[in-house]
Write a structure and sequence with these properties.
The chain is of the alpha/beta class and 310 residues long. Helices cover 43% and strands 20% of the residues. The protein folds into two domains: 139 residues, Rossmann fold; 161 residues, Lactate dehydrogenase/glycoside hydrolase, family 4, C-terminal (L-2-Hydroxyisocaproate Dehydrogenase, Chain A, domain 2). The chain has ten helices and 14 strands. The strands form four sheets. A six-stranded parallel sheet has the order 3-2-1-4-5-6, with helices on both faces. A three-stranded antiparallel sheet has the order 7-10-11, covered by helices on one side. Helix 1 crosses helix 9, helix 4 packs parallel to helix 5 and helix 5 packs across helix 10.
């Protein structure tokens, strides 16, 4: 019997713990939870292990304050960093989280030379670029979770607006994670029908705006934290596509080398995800206004990357 895949999750806060929960519930592999706070990863790992008999999973869960337990991971999910607080811009997070992510990547890469890294820490696109630089890994093995979440938010709002199942709704989102994301309504469909045929332009625009501000809307409710259920579910969809070699097309922050007119930068685009990581970047022809929005989004990412001197 082959050993189960090994998934290490760095950062055992709400997002990390929820990634662990969804991953073992889907029996994707054994999980190592790592966090700097003593007792938190150990306690959460033990608690989740004790849900195993009820949910019917045999995954092994370990919590640690160090990195030795992460050795030979197949996938490493990095959620470590500060969450955005009300009034904080994503840029305020930039330097603090760059420091945290940089040190995490150094520790992880020493112990798991063949892992695939999935970044969740904000500001997302810049953190992926940093992780890729720090790791020395090929770009296809370093990617970021943002588009799956943005698409999930967009799909939720479309489904509610039209009173249809979320399963019927496909959404298409490009660009950086945050205020400059680029949803493509003409490729967003309900049972194959473009939403541009089902909704007036002003309603679509309202949904697009709500999606772009999706994280901030949740922060304003929670006051002391940010979203974690949907971000974790989105991350696990990526982990599953990789570990099961599904060749699933998902929007992810991936390294562009000329695609969409962008070179040398991580930006959100549709990719084919499989056991090797990013196996293909799906390039579609954008209309003039869409390309302009995408360029603006890439420029916003480039600005952060330049601030970090990457």
């Amino acid at each position: 019997m082959a050993a189960r895949p090994k998934i290490s999750i760095i950062g055992a806060g709400n997002v990390g713990a929820s990634v662990a929960q969804y991953a073992v519930e889907r029996e994707l592999g054994d999980v190592v939870l790592v966090d700097v706070v003593e007792g938190i990863p150990q306690g959460k790992a033990l608690d989740l292990a004790q849900a195993g008999p009820v949910h019917g999973y045999d995954s092994h869960l370990v919590g640690s304050n160090g990195y030795d337990e992460t050795a030979d991971s197949d996938v490493v999910v990095i959620t470590a960093g500060l969450a955005r607080k009300p009034g904080m811009t994503r840029d305020d997070l930039l330097f603090k989280n760059a420091e945290i992510v940089g040190s995490v990547v150094d520790q992880v890469v020493k112990r798991s030379k063949n892992a695939i890294l999935i970044l969740v820490t904000n500001p997302l696109d810049a953190m992926v670029q940093l992780a890729w630089r720090k790791s020395g890994f090929p770009a296809e093995r370093v990617l970021g979770m943002a588009g799956v979440l943005d698409s999930a938010r967009f799909r939720t709002f479309i489904a509610r607006e039209l009173d249809v199942s979320v399963e019927n709704v496909t959404a298409f989102v490009l660009g950086g994670h945050g205020d400059t994301m680029v949803p493509l309504p003409r490729y967003s469909t309900v049972a194959g029908i473009p939403i541009t045929d089902l909704l007036p332009a002003d309603r679509i625009q309202a949904l697009v705006t709500r999606t772009a501000n999706g994280g901030a809307e949740i922060v304003s409710f929670l006051k002391t934290g940010s979203a974690y259920y949907a971000p974790a579910a989105s991350t696990v969809e990526m982990v599953e596509a990789i570990l099961k070699d599904k060749k699933k097309i998902l929007p992810c922050a991936a390294y562009l080398n000329g695609q969409y007119g962008v070179k040398g930068l991580y930006v959100g685009v549709p990719v084919k995800l499989g056991r090797k990581g990013v196996e293909q970047i799906i390039e579609i022809k954008l209309q003039t206004d869409e390309q302009a929005a995408f360029d603006k989004s890439a420029a916003a990412v480039r600005e952060l990357v330049d601030k970090l001197k990457l």
